[in-house]
Amino acid sequence: MSKTLTMAPLISLLTITLLTTPAISSVDSFVYGGCSQIKYTPGSPYESNVNSLLTSLVNSATFNVYNNFTIKSPTSQDTLYGLFQCRGDLSNGDCASCVACAVSQLGTLCLDSSGGALQLDGCFVKYDNTTFLGVEDKTEVLKKCGPLIAYDSDELNRRDGVLDYLGTSEGSYKPFRVGGSGDVSAMAQCVQDLSASECQDCLSEVVGRLKTYCGAAASGDLYLAKCYVRFSKAGAHSYGGNAVDYHDHDDDDDDDDEVQKTLAILVGLIAAVALLILLLTFLRKAWGHGECKLLVYLSLHIYSSLYCDPCTW
Ligand SMILES: *[C@@H]1O[C@H](CO)[C@@H](O)[C@H](O)[C@H]1NC(C)=O
Ligand SMILES: *[C@@H]1O[C@H](CO)[C@@H](O)[C@H](O)[C@H]1NC(C)=O
């Protein structure tokens, strides 16, 4: 009987893990990154400005979905500008961990670069010593179309309708937009240093280009420097575990990727449980009562080694 009692916290911990993990890994998945060619001198004031700017971004992401910072320097070439933008549907906690993840990846990707930008699934981070804050920029950064599929004309109209809806102003400032119809879902996000009209202009431009580029594709993503739009037909491609957050499709024909991911998680969990039971049995004999703390420690350890790559700290 006491054995069952001991296992209870483990089971609940593993259940929580199972339920929350896919969302975490999806928010942190890499979309694109780029660095300025110019390098600063390591150990220079520029470096300490970069560090303090990036730290400010990480701290601020605990309370905001968007913020900008300027680190002033006596010499104008050392003055730094930076911002982060989280996807509008993220919780404070997910936003903060996404920005922390992006900043840590930027540090590796753009080592000693005077500027850099990184887009993860859930957030965007950029810093540079040229002013880009509040500047509309429709440079194409990334476009990705899914496989071509046989849309009938109804479906195609519905898809275009959803995209048009995202590209249309409703009067109020909406930097994050979602839409869906049938099994088509889509989302749009502006970087909030843009004004309402600039955001509107950027999104309607992306929608136009996306319809051209990814005509009959099952999914499409188009990222400009300051805004992006993504769409997908259910079963063809998914945004990951968070997809349910912005489209409610009742049919459950999940992505192969999702199924594989879930399978991998399940296999991992079963292995972890088996291992823990073995360990427990052993420890029970060896130590008697210390197993509970150890159990929690081990579970967390396995949790982080399984799921927190590449952003573990
Ligand atoms: C940005 O910083 C780099 C490295 O210190 C410098 O060479 C460049 O002139 C700076 N650019 C501006 C616009 O200040
Ligand atoms: C930058 O941040 C300041 C202070 O939070 C805010 O007043 C300003 O509007 C922001 N600028 C842009 C371009 O977002």
Automatic annotation (TrEMBL):
- Which Gene3D superfamilies does the entry link to? Gnk2 domain, C-X8-C-X2-C motif (3.30.430.20)
Q: Name one GO biological process term.
A: defense response to bacterium
Per the record's keyword annotation, is Oxidoreductase included, yes or no? no
Cellular compartment(s): Cell junction, Plasmodesma; Cell membrane
Keywords, A to Z? Cell junction, Cell membrane, Disulfide bond, Host-virus interaction, Membrane, Repeat, Signal, Transmembrane, Transmembrane helix, Transport
Q: Name one GO cellular component term.
A: plasma membrane
Query: So which residues are the signal peptide here?
Result: 1-25
The question of whether Nucleotide-binding is a record keyword is answered with: no
Q: Which Pfam families does its entry note?
A: Stress-antifung (PF01657)
Q: From the record, give the transmembrane residue ranges.
A: 263-283
**How does it sit in the bilayer?**
Single-pass type I membrane protein
Principal location? other
The family database entries (InterPro entries) matched by this protein are listed as:
Cell2Cell_Antifungal, GNK2, GNK2_sf
Task: Please report the stretch or stretches of sequence annotated as the Gnk2-homologous domain.
Answer: 28-132, 136-236
Q: Which PANTHER family match?
A: ANTIFUNGAL PROTEIN GINKBILOBIN-2-LIKE, PLASMODESMATA-LOCATED PROTEIN 6
> What family is this protein classified in?
Belongs to the cysteine-rich repeat secretory protein family. Plasmodesmata-located proteins (PDLD) subfamily.
Q: Could you tell me what this protein is called?
A: Gnk2-homologous domain-containing protein
Q: What is the scientific name of the source organism? A: Salix dunnii
